[in-house]
Amino acid sequence: MRFADIGLSDELLRALSEAGYDAPTPIQAAAIPQVQMMRDIIAIAQTGTGKTASFVLPMIDVLANGRARARMPRSLILEPTRELAAQVAENFEKYGKYHKLSMALLIGGVQMGDQVKALEKGVDVLIATPGRLMDLFERGKILLTGCEMLVIDEADRMLDMGFIPDIEHICTKLPTTRQTLLFSATMPPPIKKLADKFLSNPKYIEVARPATANVNIEQFLVNVTQMKKREVLRDLLRTETVSNAIIFCNRKTTVRELNTSLQRHGFRSGEIHGDIDQASRQKQLEAFKNGDIDLLVASDVAARGLDVKGVSHVFNFDAPWHPDDYVHRIGRTGRAGAKGKAFTFVTKADQEAIESIEKLIGNKIERLGEIEVQVDGEERVPAKRGRRTSSVKAKEARPEPPEAVAETSQPKPVREKTVAKPAREKPEPKPESAKPAQSGGAATGDDGWNGPMPGFLSVGFGT
Ligand code: AMP
User: Which terminal residue of the chain, N or C, has fewer Cβ atoms less than 10 Å from its own Cβ?
Assistant: First the structure.
């Protein structure tokens, strides 16, 4: 099947062809005709499947007719994090370049004044994180009664972040005759309940998980002790053919410490996590995309949905607590047909988490024995993998102070407990992925970031 066969406008086909896309992905082929027929949909699809375009493309055509009115957005897309919201906005720009639609992005962590100005002009597409949207709504700056299309993206992530009550509240403010599209990687009971309550006769679409279906990602478990993790990581970075890599940690402090350690050892690395202000996060991301740095040390929330082309490796410095996070993390590599490798460090305390992961993906992951590192720092690699040349070059290593990794084995959070949340509580010291949301104050990022607020972006796109 080709895009030309599913009834998209000529303008969209042109934009798609310029983006280099000719054939729809399975989720696009299944969802686009349903959206065109004005059906509600529940789509079980992960990032990496092309799910964003599966709602962005038909929305652009549906919204092409009609005019936006002041403070009354015509459509609303809810995203759990600012990064995802920004990526959806990029999709609208890319595919909507031959349409004259206006768009605004409402995300926590940026000035509210500009956001209000953009809304007052009227927008066709509003992309928002729930906390910031609720803030503006409660201040009377926005009316949702003209909003006839609603997209709830990454619904299971919204659940993890404690956004479901906000979403329910938002749903009640939209017209009941609207079209609702719900995307989620999994369908836990609270999401099913949300769908039953707010969707009308939805078409159910499910596509294969990219991580389980993606034969392009080679996956390995590496047995390791907590104290040896950094050494083993450096060893892998030097012996694998790493062109660039994302390294995931479960806690912000680990992200910070590991990045510092890697830099001290001469690696070109950066970090993103929820405590870093938006401008710096963007800067780090750009540096990673441009190749100014090769390694990005990241937390789950900050890295959710990151779409960086050509990531050769993913390292799980900490085994993720939630099996879904594993799928999301490794999905940062092996994208768009490229090959990728994912290494997950496993300590004794992680065995249960690994069992859950293997159950979810339906496969046993190949286990490498602990990689031996000699006392003098000279690495020995397991004979099985052999030594290869990495393009991630560490400059001459400076001596590092003793690596007493402060983080001992972490308590495993219970998923259900992290779900129900008092929305406005201070979350520390939980891991980022299980952190309750803060949907309150103006200076609060939706993903729990409380830093200063740089400029807002409101984008009018089209020619
Ligand atoms: P998503 O699942 O929306 O995060 O998309 C994952 C990646 O697939 C992004 O880099 C998209 O640009 C890319 N993509 C989206 N649609 C297509 C398509 N029809 N063919 C190839 N790649 C696509």
Answer: C
